[in-house]
Every structure is written in structure tokens, then in C-alpha cells.
Amino acid sequence: MTHSQSSISALEDRVVKKLRVRKHHFLDVKKHLSSAFYWSLDARQAFAQYMRQNGWTMVECPTETETAIASDYKSGEVVISRDSDMPVYESINTIWRPISRGLFLVYDVPDVLRTLNINRSQLTVPGVVSRNDYNRNIYSLGSATNFSIIKTLQEV
């Protein structure tokens, strides 16, 4: 939390002194605030136990939750997620993505594939090479360029 406080103080100091505030000042604050709110494994396990004791079904995942969601998904169900890699899981067909004010974008994955004229494998590749939770785009290429390259490939 000390890094967060020093970043906030530096930003506040620049504002008070009427110095130019740049994007990196805000990003510095955001980075340090994000790291200040990390849940330890013990805290997550305690929360899961509390929820179970209060009648909730809790699934703890040793890896990304998407893998557990995809393995439990049954035809006709809906996944609600902001995570952009949900469509790459072959078992998932319907995704509701919350946007704001209680509104959702509804993705019917088979319809998306038909509209883009690609198959599920071709959808998975951009999910890996484009910006995601783990890495940025292929150096100097954006998502649209990645997609156009993958679309020219035969079935993967």
C-alpha cells in the first residue's frame, strides 16, 4: 500500500503545483492500487468456506476459472463473463458479456463463427496470439491484422 500512497501523492503534488499530468502518472496509480487489492490464497479459501457454510456452491480452481466453467457447461446454458477468451472453449455456445447499467452483449458463438466465416479452431488462434490475460499482441500486429492472417489459413 505504500507504493500506492506514494503514487497518489506524486499525482496530487503535480496537480497542486499545476504541473502537466501525463498518462503514465495515472497508470502508475492504477498499477499500485491493483496490486494493493490482491487476495491471498488463505483469504480466498476462507471466503469460499464462508460461502459454502451459507449454502452457496463454490468451485475453487487451481488454474483459470474458464476451464472449470467450460467443463461444467451444458447445452442451453449461458456463461456470464467479461473474459474475452470464453468463446475459445469448444463446449461454450452462449456468452452474455456485461457492459454497463445492467446491459449485456449476447454472443451466440455459432452465429459469430458463421458471420466471420471461420471455424472454432480459427477463433482459438487469435485468442492465443492477440492481447489476452497473459501477453500482448504479436509485436507490431494488432488484433485485426492477426485475424486477417488467421482467416487466410486453412483449417488448423
UniProtKB/TrEMBL annotation:
Top-rank taxon: Eukaryota
Xref: SUPFAM superfamilies: PIN domain-like
Name this polypeptide is given: Uncharacterized protein
Source lineage: Eukaryota, Fungi, Fungi incertae sedis, Mucoromycota, Mortierellomycotina
